[in-house]
Write a structure and sequence with these properties.
The protein is mostly helical and 554 residues long. The protein has 25 helices and six strands. It folds into three domains: 241 residues, Ankyrin repeat-containing domain (Serine Threonine Protein Phosphatase 5, Tetratricopeptide repeat, Alpha Horseshoe), CATH 1.25.40; 231 residues, no CATH class; 38 residues, no CATH class.
């Protein structure tokens, strides 16, 4: 036993993590000097415990006097290791026991440089706001946290550093590299865009001590992606030509107008090129439009990565075309009873107003409460839960951060691509009413389009009449036929969407709530769902259940 104890004391740093807590504590009490002894790799037991994130052992070692500022052979301390791992709770524990985030390692890096390597936005914010560490601290190579984050491709952290306005994007290291040079060698186009736009476009033509611009440095990098190099060269040419870089607002606007443009080009070509065989032109163009829509992603291909507005453009263009076709193309108001016309006019007006409100209104964005420094201090102490580092606030229960909107929303239901916004607490009611009014308009259009145009087709039994009606529309009125197809498919989609909303709201949930918490343990009856849904329509808010045991995980 004595020999075993001597072996443990001689190899304490290497064996500490394998010992049970009582044995570890007894060993330290027997010989307190071993707490800072080093192992075969020159690291202390505390540094090894930090490397694996073993918080109980870390606390025990610190309780018995382990030095958090003791350097390893490489010059790094336990604080450096914790920051490189992005372990906020470990860093806070070390700082409470005298850890110094400003101690430099062998390369001159302090804690915030290591946090930038890890890409931990929350830890960088904690060090900057609570510990008041300088965000422009330089290591021995002159690199700032922005240089490091850009080279590592940490887009969120780069955006935070740039938007905080506490860093100088023009700062260079000892080799003359700007943060854009670092971003270029990192090979992430979104990071390059975040560094230069807006206000630092001149970095595109800034050269380092080797005489290389960021684009030229990117070509020499082994980690550069073809996409990043393409964008850097494109932006450099634009800046050299006009001292400016093209704003992403123009590509955004082009994508917004693309669906309606394709559709109306097809209509005009079919009407004027082949007026009596319109389907020969209209259908291929319509299929091309559907193909373009199907190949779209949720974000723009531009490095800014805004939500793709093409779906919003498709819905807006379809709505406008349907209303124009109903009121002008087939002139339904001349053939419908006055009460039907009034219903359609009033529903269309309300629908457009709700559509505008949904697209431009506040879905229910979570606002920060209290100073950021106090919030982060609470996060470090484990008091504040659900902190969102991108929005820099503590998210309340049932809120969610949307990566497309880059905002946290109260009671978020989902992100609607066709409205290009989130459906959350402030607009959920409007969204459900929007679906209902949309269904009324679609049913009214389909009924009017069929009833008004069918007398122009041949008469006979219903099969012959339907086929004759179809051929007549394909040859003579392709616009109306395409609107019938679009509205018919959209009506099926709207019915399914309304049913989904009824199911989740009737179960006292939102769509995201169901995805996170699962289905109710006790399935609500149809009557209870109707009651909850009616309560939602009256009060305007989803009657969320406050019972933590109400849901089962799926």
């Amino acid at each position: 036993m004595a020999a075993m104890t001597a072996s443990v004391l001689n190899n304490f740093a290497d064996l500490a993590l394998s010992l049970p807590a009582p044995s570890l504590e007894a060993t330290i009490k027997q010989n307190p000097t071993v707490v800072d002894s080093t192992g075969y790799d020159g690291r202390t037991a505390l540094q090894k415990a930090v490397m694996v994130g073993n918080l109980p052992v870390i606390r025990l070692l610190l309780q018995y006097g382990a030095d958090p500022n003791l350097r390893a052979q490489s010059g790094e301390t336990a604080v450096h290791i914790a920051c490189c791992r992005g372990l906020l709770n470990v860093v806070v524990t070390l700082l409470k026991h005298g850890g110094d985030p400003m101690v430099a390692d062998g390369t001159g890096r302090v804690g915030i440089h290591c946090a930038a390597i890890a890409g931990s936005m929350m830890l960088v914010q904690y060090l900057a706001e609570v510990c008041e560490v300088n965000l422009e601290a330089e290591d021995n190579c002159g690199c700032t946290p922005l240089h490091i984050a850009a080279a590592c491709g940490h887009l969120g952290l780069v955006k935070y550093l740039v938007q905080s306005k506490k860093v100088n994007r023009n700062k260079v290291d000892i080799e003359g590299n700007t943060s854009l040079h670092s971003a270029a060698t990192g090979g992430v186009s979104g990071v390059c865009w975040a560094v230069i736009y807006p206000g630092s476009e001149q970095l595109l033509t800034t050269t380092n001590t080797a005489g290389l611009t960021p684009a030229q440095a990117a070509r020499a990098s082994t980690s550069i992606s073809p996409d990043c190099l393409k964008w850097l060269e494109r932006w450099t040419r634009q800046y050299e030509r006009s001292s400016a870089v093209e704003s992403p607002r123009w590509p955004w606007l082009i994508q917004l107008l693309t669906p309606a443009t394709i559709f109306y080009i097809g209509i005009l070509l079919s009407v004027f090129a082949m007026p009596h065989h319109q389907w020969m032109v209209g259908m291929p163009v319509f299929i091309v439009g559907l193909t373009v829509m199907a190949r779209q992603q949720h974000r723009m291909k531009h490095p800014v990565m805004w939500p793709n507005p093409i779906y919003l453009g498709a819905y807006g263009g379809g709505l406008l075309s349907t209303l124009v076709c109903y009121f002008v193309g087939i002139e339904a108001h001349r053939h419908e009873p006055i009460i039907v016309s009034l219903i359609m006019w009033s529903t269309a007006l309300c629908h457009i107003i709700i559509f505008y409100k949904l697209v431009t209104g506040d879905p229910g964005v979570v606002r920060a409460e209290g100073p950021l420094q106090e919030v982060l201090r609470g996060v470090g102490e484990g008091v504040v839960r659900g902190y969102c580092s991108e929005c820099q606030l503590a998210s309340p229960p049932f809120s969610h951060h949307c990566r497309l909107c880059v905002e946290c929303h109260h009671q978020m239901d989902h992100h609607c691509l066709f409205l290009n916004t989130c459906i959350a607490a402030n607009n959920h009611w409007h969204f459900v009413i929007f679906i209902m009014s949309n269904m009324v308009l679609m049913v009214g259009f389909l009924e009017a389009a069929y009833r008004i145009t069918i007398p122009k087709a041949a008469q006979g039994d219903w099969v012959d009449m339907l086929l004759a009606h179809l051929w007549y529309l394909m040859d003579e009125n392709m616009w109306t036929l395409l609107m019938i197809i679009c509205n018919g498919a959209s009506l099926i989609w709207a019915i399914n969407l309304l049913n989904n909303q009824f199911q989740v709201i009737g179960s006292q949930q939102t769509t995201l709530c169901r995805l996170k918490l699962g289905n109710p343990l006790t399935k609500p009856t149809h009557r209870e769902k109707v009651k909850n849904f009616w309560s939602f329509l009256v009060r305007g808010r989803v009657p969320l259940s406050s019972q933590t045991h109400y849901f089962s995980q799926v």
